[in-house]
Fold this protein.
Amino acid sequence: MIHPAAVLTTVALHREAPARPPAEIVVRRGDSLSGIAARYRIEWPGLYEANRAVIGGNPGLITPGERLRIPSAASAARLAAYYRPAAIVMPAPAASSATDPVAAPGVSPEPAAAAGSFQQCVISTESGGNAQAMNGSGHYGLYQFSYSSWTAAGGDPAAFGHASVAEQNQVFATAYAQDGTSPWAPYDGC
């Protein structure tokens, strides 16, 4: 018979042992780089850089069946320093006026000056630059807004699911001004 104290000691030792990531995983349906990185507690840009040859130029597009190498946390941190999001070329917004329903007077529909590369990182990670991307949980657009976050940031409820790039940029600028990076940074690694 095993003494109960011996079992508790063994369990406690197991909890303290760090989990070692596998050398390689196979991407499953529904996986994302940020999700895989979170599972192994590494930085997603480092995971991307370790697998750029497999994934290609778009870190937001991984395919079920791809084999990805999982670097150590230290290696992922080093590789993340080399990550530079691809520049997303956005159409130039139309000149806004006081009667323009998309842009409020005095507010630029392009939030790049406020958000800089953070905006590019979010677009790259969330939608890969596809302005009409809709995921399985109902998040939409370049920034993958939920319906409630879209309307809370001033998005037209009727435009959710088919808004212009300019309107999506305006809603992002409003959400960014209200909440900073918090709606995206914890999930995207931006």
Summary: The two ends are 53 Å apart (CA to CA). The domain at 112-188 is CATH 1.10.530.10 (Lysozyme). The longest strand covers residues 24-26. The beta strands are 24-26, 67-69.
